[in-house]
Amino acid sequence: MTDLSSTDTVFVFVHGAWHGSGQWAATQRALAALGAASIAVDLPGHGFDAPLPGGYLRPSQPGLSTERSALATVTMDDSAEAVLETLRQGRHHRRVVLVAHSAGGGPASLAAERAPELVDEIVYLSAFVPAGRPRFMDYLGSPENATARGQSLALGDPGELGAVRINPLSQDPAYVEELRQTYYHDIPLDRFDRWRSALSPDLPLAIPTTPVIVTPGRWGRVPRTFLRCADDRALPAAVQDLMIAEADRAMPGNPFTVRTLPGSHSPFAARPRELAAALLP
């Protein structure tokens, strides 16, 4: 890392699919206790301003599997611009660390490619790295991802919906448990009920399907760290390691620093203080 103190650093957090800026709150509090500033981004179509399918909050959730998403027109460019807007706010700090989780790796990587001068380090928290394969779905379909859970969670046809839709408010105990086991298996069910209630149902289809092209002279020059989640059931360690290896082969002059956290895909929920400490080694 660097010799700069934590007070010289601002962390810019980019959430993953179906989440929002609020997922980082406990991690941000832990960082603040260590003297570090932070900002969290809401990507378009996420957070408390996310539009919801018409029947989502109604009894029996009519049309949830068929109603076209209001986010169908959201692009990867839109999402990268939201990250860039927040990065520009952080430049009064001497050092800016961009932290991306899961599907947020796409928009974060594109933002760093377009404005590497705004980023001093990128941290991928079990996040998509596009240097080896430009689309997140290329890794999700890899043999290394064969053990991933959650394939049964998607509703309807993503192409028709314009989004990858899940149902965080499902009344089916088996569905709820699969959602927990996929993303949050190391927190108890009562806590997970609160976490799932804050999720939004739609991920714009552009996020996993749009190619993100990064180059050695721009994205590739930014120091980068990968925080592996050792018992990740949504994006297994084998896929995380594949992305790291392929990125390092593509950009051999600036390889990843790799560290490992215990537990699930969602350490911001299960162990936020440990995550904060890992960001400030």
Please describe the structure with a list of short key phrases separated by commas or semicolons.
281 residues; single chain; 6-stranded parallel β-sheet; Rossmann fold; 14% strand
Helical proportion, percent range: 25-40%
Separate helix tally: 11
Count of DSSP strands: 8
Taken together, the total number of domains comes to 1
Q: What class do helices, strands and sheet pairing give? A: alpha/beta
| CATH fold description | Rossmann fold
**Terminal Cα span:** 8 Å
Which outline best applies? Answer: globular
Q: How are the strands of the largest sheet arranged?
A: 2-1-3-4-7-8
CATH-level-2 architecture: 3-Layer(aba) Sandwich
Element pattern in H and E:
EHEHEHEHHEHHEHEHEHH
- CATH superfamily, called what? Alpha/Beta hydrolase fold, catalytic domain
How does the major sheet shape up?
6 strands, parallel
